[in-house]
Amino acid sequence: MIAIGCDHGGYELKEHIKKHLDEIGAEYKDYGVYSEESVDYPDCARPVCEAVLDGSAEKGILVCGTGIGISIAANKFKGIRAAHCTDVYSASMAKQHNNANIICLGGRITGRELAFMIIDAWNNAEFQGGRHAARVAKIHEIEE
Ligand code: RB5
After folding, report:
1. Average per-residue pLDDT for the chain
2. How far from each other are the two terminal CA atoms of the chain, in whole angstroms?
3. Is 20 designated active site?
4. Can you say how many angstroms the Cα of residue 26 is from the centroid of all Cα atoms in its chain?
């Protein structure tokens, strides 16, 4: 299951992403927000990060206006590796090398079709492990 969330700046793109996930048959849960009323993006990151960390979601998608604020907030949660991506190659590498468990997008930056390609590249990629696992472990050592 993919947890998905956004702030007001990401609401429109999040709704398009949900349609895309429906089309590809991916299971997801929408953790809000549910309108374009102004909210604070750290509050929107929290439920998606918590779902990933408690195992109720396998991975997460977060969208704010730029993708920046919500990724900064998500990366404060211990165990979250949130990758802010604006291109397909980075999205694939975010999984292959960084084992990113959340991908972040900017609803005011990235067009919907590119966003779908970015999500698919990350969602379909496999973590390569090996030396990359050792590097990811070092990230989590920093958290301790
Ligand atoms: C909200 O206006 C905007 O600041 C937010 O969506 C995001 O872009 C922050 O990084």
Report:
1. 98
2. 28
3. no
4. 15
